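Board notes, transcribed. Complex of a protein with zinc ion.
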Amino acid sequence: MLSCERCLKYAEEKHYCPYCNERLSCCESPPMHVGDGLGWGAEVMFICLNNDCPTFDKGWEHIEEQYGHSGSYRYMLLPGQKKGEIMMVGSKDAFTGCVVDPEALMAQNKRYHAEKEALDQLDASIEAKDIKPALHLLLDEHAALLGREKACDSLYEINDLNCIDPIRNHTFKNIDIEQKVNMTVAEILKANFKKECPYCAEIIKKQAKVCMHCNKDL
Ligand SMILES: [Zn+2]
Ligand SMILES: [Zn+2]
């Protein structure tokens, strides 16, 4: 997936098909084929995905007659070029799955920057006893594993019971992180002479015989 500001700019560029005048769609370039050694030389390409485009509409018959297989043509323009070219596509759906969505891209960018910011603050957050950066990394399922592991260590250092509730309200998709988080929570509880009530999950004194929240015998 693209996540660069440059690609966002591409997605905003307006180019039009010389055959049907429809606006071209900004698509991620497919990975180059091993062996052809060339690739597209660009991260994105602008393609006319209009199914009523005469180039596409008439292409089926032409390819059938010429090559005896199924396919058609679409107009394609590479970034920075004035003139595009006609390329062969095997199906109607080719390239429709890789249209760059500026909104998704922007959301991705925002997430990435927030992750980076949290990571940058991690060391200082231990000194400041601020659990927010570590929690941000841990609760972001798209954040890099190394940073999330480091976040666990930070939480252990900060040793603040307030980090437990947000953690318990989150479903961890990565088993390694989940295990490390559980170990960290156990350490923090231990260091504070606390435990979680097995019935209501509230944090209570380690020695408690009755839970002060749900009144169950322990
Ligand atoms: Zn067209
Ligand atoms: Zn309880």
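The CA atoms of residues 84 and 186 lie 61 Å apart. The pocket of zinc ion (ligand 2) is lined by residues 197, 199-200, 202, 211, 213-214, 216 (CB under 6 Å).
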